[in-house]
C-alpha cells in the first residue's frame, strides 16, 4: 500500500481504530483494576496474620508484681531468629508523643520496629483499633507492620502491641499476578483486535461487492447492479440502477436526435450539390464547393456528437484484433496497386472500451492515412499501458512529417498536400474522437522512417 493510499481516509481503518481503541482501553483499565484488587486482597490477608499475632500477644501478656509487662511465650520460631523477617514488640506511649519499647522479640535483636512519628497520636485517637503501615527492618527488608493500643489489667498506662512481617512474598505474588494478567490481556487484546478487523471486513463486504459491481458496469462487463444487498445498501443499489437507466435513456435520445438532424441536413445539401453540378457557371461552382464543405463539416460534427454520446453509454467493449484484421484486409485491397503490406499484431484478449464503429473510425483513419503516404509498409502494434488503458501505434515507411507539420495536421481541416485526395479531417477526427473517450493522439517519427501515430485509448477487461 502506498503512502498516498495510507493518507486517504479509510472507512475500514476508521472503524478498526475506533473499535480497537475502545477495546484496548477497556482491557487496560480492567487489568489495572484487577491488579489493584488482587494487591488489596493480598494485603488484607497479610494484615489478618499480623492481627492474629497481636491478638496472641494481647491475650498472653501479663503484668508482674513490679508492674512490668511480661510477653507470652510464642511458638513461631521465626520470631526467635535474628532478623528473620517476623517481629513483634510491646511499647508504651511517651509524654513527648513517641513510644518507649518495653519488650521485643529476639528476631529484632538490638533494634526496634520503626514506626511513623505520629503513631502514638493515631493509636490514641482510635483506641483498640489497629493501625497498619509499611516500614523496613535493619536489613532494609520491606515490612508490613500493625500496631494496636490496649489497656492491660493492673496497669494504668496503655500498652502498644506491634507486629511486623516481611512483605516480600506478598509483593512477589502481586508482581507475578500483574505479569500473568498483562500477558493474558495482551493476548486477549491481540485476539480482540483481530476479531474487530475480521468483523469490519465481513460487515463491509457487501459495500466492497457493490464497488466491484459498479466497476464492472463501468468497464462494460455488466449493464446493471444485480446482487441482492442488505437493507442498508439496497436503496443505494436501486439508485445506481436508476441512474444507469437514466443515462442510457439520455444516450438513446441523443442518438435519435443526431440521426434525425443528419437526415434533415443531408437531404437539402444533396439537393444543392446536385443542382449546382447540373448548372454551369461561376456561381454554381462556388455553391458546389461550399455545399460540399458544409456536408463534410456536418458529417464531422455529427460524428463527433455521436461519439460523445456513445462514451456516456453502458460501456460496450470491442475486440481490437477483429477490427485491425478487418481494416488491414480492406486497406490492402484498396492499396493493392501500391503493394502496401500491413503488419499488425494485437492479443485476442485486448478489448477497446467503446463501440466497434468508433474503433473502426479511429484505427481506420490512421491506417488509411498510413497506407496513403507509405512507400510499401505499414506496421501496427498494441501495448497495454495499464488495466484501464492501451496504446495503438500505427507507423509507416513514408516521408513522415516534421515537428511543425505534426502540429499543423491535427488542426481541423488542415491539409499539407492539397493535391492528395481527402478532406483534411482525418487526424483531426482521430484526435477529437480519442479525446471524447478520454484518450489522446500523439504524432512522432517512426522507426520505419515515416509517421508514427500513437493512440491512448480506454481498455476493457477481458
- Strand tally is 14
Describe the sheet with the most strands: 7 strands, mixed
Classification by helices and strands: alpha+beta
What is the share of helical residues?
40-55%
Distance from first to last alpha carbon: 26 Å
Return residue spans where pLDDT drops below 50 for at least 5 consecutive residues. 418-425
> How large is the radius of gyration?
49 Å
Shape: rod-shaped
Q: What portion of residues belong to β-strands?
A: 15-25%
Reading the helices and strands in chain order gives HHEEEEHEEEHHHHEHEEHEEHHEE
Helical run tally: 11
Q: Could you report the average pLDDT, rounded to the nearest whole number?
A: 85
Textual characterization of the structure:
The chain is an alpha+beta fold and 462 residues long. The chain has eleven helices and 14 strands. The chain has helices at 3-7, 11-60, 119-125, 168-203, 205-218, 234-278, 282-310, 320-334, 356-373, 403-409, 426-436; strands spanning 62-63, 69-70, 86-93, 99-104, 131-136, 142-150, 159-166, 317-319, 341-345, 351-353, 377-386, 389-396, 440-445, 451-460. Strands 8, 9, 10, 11, 12, 13 and 14 form a seven-stranded mixed beta sheet that branches. The longest helix is centred in the first third of the chain and has 50 residues, at 11-60.
Amino acid at each position: 500500500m502506498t503512502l498516498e493510499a495510507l493518507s486517504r481516509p479509510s472507512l475500514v481503518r476508521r472503524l478498526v481504530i475506533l473499535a480497537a481503541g475502545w477495546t484496548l482501553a477497556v482491557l487496560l483499565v480492567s487489568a489495572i483494576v484487577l491488579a489493584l484488587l488482587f494487591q488489596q486482597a493480598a494485603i488484607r490477608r497479610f494484615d489478618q496474620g499480623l492481627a492474629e499475632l497481636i491478638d496472641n500477644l494481647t491475650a498472653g501478656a501479663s503484668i508482674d508484681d513490679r508492674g512490668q509487662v511480661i510477653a507470652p511465650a510464642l511458638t513461631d520460631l521465626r520470631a526467635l531468629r535474628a532478623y528473620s523477617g517476623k517481629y513483634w514488640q510491646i511499647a508504651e506511649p511517651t509524654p513527648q508523643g513517641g513510644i518507649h519499647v518495653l519488650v521485643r522479640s529476639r528476631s529484632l535483636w538490638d533494634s526496634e520496629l520503626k514506626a511513623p512519628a505520629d503513631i502514638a497520636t493515631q493509636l490514641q485517637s482510635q483506641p483498640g483499633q489497629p493501625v497498619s503501615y509499611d516500614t523496613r527492618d535493619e536489613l532494609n527488608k520491606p515490612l508490613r507492620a500493625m500496631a494496636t493500643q490496649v489497656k492491660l489489667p493492673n496497669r494504668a498506662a496503655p500498652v502498644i502491641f506491634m507486629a511486623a512481617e516481611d512483605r516480600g512474598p506478598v509483593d512477589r505474588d502481586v508482581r507475578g499476578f500483574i505479569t500473568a494478567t498483562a500477558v493474558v490481556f495482551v493476548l486477549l487484546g491481540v485476539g480482540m483486535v483481530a476479531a474487530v478487523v475480521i468483523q469490519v471486513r465481513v460487515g463491509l463486504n457487501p459495500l466492497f461487492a457493490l464497488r466491484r459491481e459498479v466497476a464492472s458496469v463501468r468497464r462494460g462487463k455488466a449493464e446493471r447492479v444485480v446482487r441482492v444487498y442488505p437493507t442498508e445498501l439496497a436503496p443505494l443499489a436501486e439508485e445506481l440502477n436508476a441512474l444507469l437507466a437514466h443515462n442510457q435513456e439520455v444516450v438513446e435520445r441523443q442518438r435519435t436526435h443526431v440521426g434525425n438532424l443528419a437526415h434533415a441536413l443531408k437531404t437539402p445539401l444533396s439537393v444543392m450539390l446536385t443542382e449546382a453540378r447540373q448548372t454551369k457557371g461561376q456561381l454554381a461552382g462556388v455553391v458546389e464547393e461550399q455545399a460540399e464543405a458544409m456536408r463534410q463539416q456536418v458529417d464531422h460534427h455529427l460524428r463527433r456528437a455521436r461519439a460523445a454520446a456513445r462514451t456516456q453509454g453502458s460501456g460496450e467493449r470491442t475486440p481490437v484484433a477483429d477490427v485491425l484484421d478487418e481494416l488491414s484486409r480492406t486497406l490492402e485491397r484498396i492499396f493493392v496497386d501500391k503493394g502496401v503490406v500491413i503488419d499488425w499484431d494485437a492479443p485476442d484478449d485486448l478489448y477497446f472500451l467503446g463501440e466497434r464503429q468508433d474503433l473502426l473510425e479511429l484505427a481506420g483513419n490512421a491506417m488509411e492515412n498510413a497506407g496513403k503516404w507509405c512507400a510499401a509498409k505499414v506496421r501496427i502494434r498494441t501495448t497495454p499501458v495499464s488495466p484501464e488503458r492501451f496504446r495503438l501505434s500505427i507507423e509507416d515507411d513514408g516521408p513522415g512529417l516534421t515537428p511543425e507539420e505534426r502540429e499543423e495536421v491535427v488542426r481541423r481541416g488542415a491539409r499539407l498536400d492539397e493535391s492528395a485526395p481527402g478532406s483534411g479531417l482525418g487526424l483531426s477526427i482521430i484526435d477529437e474522437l480519442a479525446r471524447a473517450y478520454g484518450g489522446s493522439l500523439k504524432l512522432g517519427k517512426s522507426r520505419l522512417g515515416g509517421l508514427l501515430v500513437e493512440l491512448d485509448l480506454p481498455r476493457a477487461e477481458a
